[in-house]
Amino acid sequence: MKGLIFVELMNFLDEQLGDAITERVVEAASLPNDAAFTTVGNYPSHYAADLVAAAARMTGADAALMCEDFGRFLFQRFQTRFPHLLSRYTSARELLEHVQGHIHEEVKVIYPDASPPQVETHSDIEGYTVTYRSGRGFAHIAYGLVAQCISFYSEQSDVSWKSGSTDTQACFIIRPRKGIYPL
Ligand code: HEM
């Protein structure tokens, strides 16, 4: 997985835990490269899971919730890093519909060795659904990205996990918040 994601994970840990604890997390995760990441490098995706697991052990936090918070943080970093990719969309739905066909395709142009996950959308009786698929198993990060995308557009919607979702294949259902009716 691209170093960019790891660089932002380290920034997230620094922001949440401070430098000193982040240093101890890195030691506890015992990564071969001491968590020295560059944005253009490529690293085994389990390094990210190892870092989050070590941080969760050390702080008593829930690893899945930490991944969701990281997803929210990551979306905000994407706003700064890729403003040209986000600026053409005017709603969460529009952006989410174009992650697969445009955003992650552009990512592959910027980083030819990238292999982003599959992110598809559709509407059915249950609501508007985003489906994430990736052997890397970062569904909780995907959930945080989707949730922050909705906040970014100040939309009053709730995101819930469809039952049967797993770390490698998950569906998120987006519905207008109770008491709020779409125009
Ligand atoms: C806001 C625009 C977005 C940008 C610029 C972006 C960019 C990226 C980049 C650069 C990577 C690393 C790819 C690699 O290492 O091969 C990535 C991976 C990922 N993207 Fe996106 N992405 C965006 C939106 C989203 C959204 C909305 C989702 C939600 C489903 C998503 C889900 C993920 C996940 C979970 C990964 C981690 C790798 C994996 O699970 O296989 N992305 N994205």
From TrEMBL:
Signal peptide segment: none
Heme NO-binding domain location: 2-159
UniProt cross-references to SUPFAM superfamilies, sorted A to Z: Ligand-binding domain in the NO signalling and Golgi transport
Molecular function terms from GO: heme binding
Domain of life where this protein originates: Bacteria
Official protein name in the record: Heme NO-binding domain-containing protein
Gene source species: Salinicola endophyticus
